[in-house]
Amino acid sequence: MIRGVRGAITVDRNEEQHIIEATEKLLVNMIEENEIEPENVASVFISVTDDINSVFPAKALRKFNGWTYVPVMCMQEIPVPNSLKFCIRIMIHLNTELAQQDIRHAYLEKAIALRPDLKETQQ
């Protein structure tokens, strides 16, 4: 079964170091919480809000051992008025035996506001 593991995090400003560090933090959380092995990953989509453009966040994933051949795509989110700013979102498509309700999604920093219904499962 292919399942999606979602995550999001915010940064304070559009600077490469902050974007890479935040993306690493989010990826580590998603990978550890779901015990993800790169050979089980079909693809990773990373999106950013239109105020993030100083670096491709996918650069952070390339630092992880074993992730060299995992397909990664970066894209821009729809600029919805009054939506959360400086936000990085990740979707990992994963081959897994886990049931949908057992997937642990990660919403960090101000991105918790995107899915407050999942906050209790992230503690």
From TrEMBL:
One of its GO terms (molecular function) is chorismate mutase activity. It comes from the Bacteria. Its EC number is 5.4.99.5. GO terms for biological process: amino acid biosynthetic process; aromatic amino acid family biosynthetic process; chorismate metabolic process. It catalyses: chorismate = prephenate. Prephenate binds at R6, R89, Y107. PROSITE patterns: CHORISMATE_MUT_1 (PS51167). Keywords: Amino-acid biosynthesis, Aromatic amino acid biosynthesis, Isomerase. The keyword Hydrolase does not apply. InterPro entries: Chorismate_mutase_AroH, RutC-like_sf. PANTHER family: CHORISMATE MUTASE, CHORISMATE MUTASE AROH. This is chorismate mutase. The lineage of its organism: Bacteria, Bacillati, Bacillota, Bacilli, Bacillales. The gene is aroH.
